[in-house]
Design brief:
Blueprint: H1 15-25, H2 29-42, E1 48-52, H3 58-65, E2 69-74, H4 77-90, E3 95-98, E4 111-117, H5 126-136, E5 137-147, H6 154-162, H7 168-185, H8 189-197, E6 203-208, E7 213-218
Helix pairs in contact: 2-3, 6-7
Length: 220
């Protein structure tokens, strides 16, 4: 049986840790730009998009640059502050909201698309989070969940980290974080499928790659 509540064992993504994450993941900006372009192809401007757990806000900013109306909800006040400053520098507008993925501060049926990238494994109530994504979508809307899965190999992780073009110190640290924190927190693919089924989506497609998965979920 799938556990619907997970104890949160990580340190909070606040202060210096949030700034380190911002600096490290900023080097992966081309991936955020490519994902924003894919989403913009699904949701024509000026569609309403919600990003759950945007972190430093790279994806939200890139979606806003493509003419989408973007709201973003994060539990980290540091991340919201970083995202706000970055959006101002880039000259785009985001609606940044403080809140929990399991109780989104967003009204029912108010967005066309929901995206959550690289955060799902850390949610304390993952099934509730998926149901919240379903709730806030308009009929016919789509949610995209992107994250790691438990079965990922360290060989693929090392290959992924090498492609991030980090300093030697950050490569070592990032690899250790993957091995001892991220992979143990991730769910097996079978559990991910089971959890998405509990939210009663009209359709779910889960594609697994070398380092993670994409779950495309359609609301009826």
């Amino acid at each position: 049986m799938t556990a619907t509540v997970k104890a949160y064992k990580s340190v909070g993504m606040e202060g210096g840790i949030a700034r380190w994450y911002d600096r490290t993941t900023r080097k992966d900006l081309p991936a955020y730009q490519a994902l924003a372009a894919r989403i913009a192809a699904v949701v024509p401007a000026p569609g309403d998009v919600l990003e759950v757990a945007p972190g430093p806000g790279f994806l939200s900013i890139e979606m806003a640059k493509r003419g989408l109306n973007v709201r973003a909800v994060d539990i980290s006040r540091s991340f919201l502050e970083i995202a706000g400053h970055s959006a101002a520098r880039e000259g785009v507008k985001l609606q940044l909201l403080h809140g929990d993925a399991a109780a989104l501060p967003v009204e029912d049926g108010s967005v066309d698309f929901v995206v959550c990238r690289a955060a799902f494994k850390n949610f304390t109530q993952p099934v509730k989070a998926i149901r919240e994504m379903h709730r806030v979508l308009r009929p016919g809307g789509t949610a995209l969940l992107i994250d790691m899965y438990r079965e990922v190999s360290m060989q693929e992780v090392r290959k992924h980290v090498e492609g991030m073009h980090l300093s030697l110190r950050d490569r070592v640290l990032t690899t250790l974080i993957f091995r001892f924190f991220l992979i143990p927190r991730a769910y097996p693919l079978a559990v991910i499928r089971e959890m998405t089924a509990q939210a009663h989506w009209a359709g779910v497609t889960i594609d697994a790659g070398p380092i993670g998965f994409e779950a495309w979920m359609k609301k009826g």
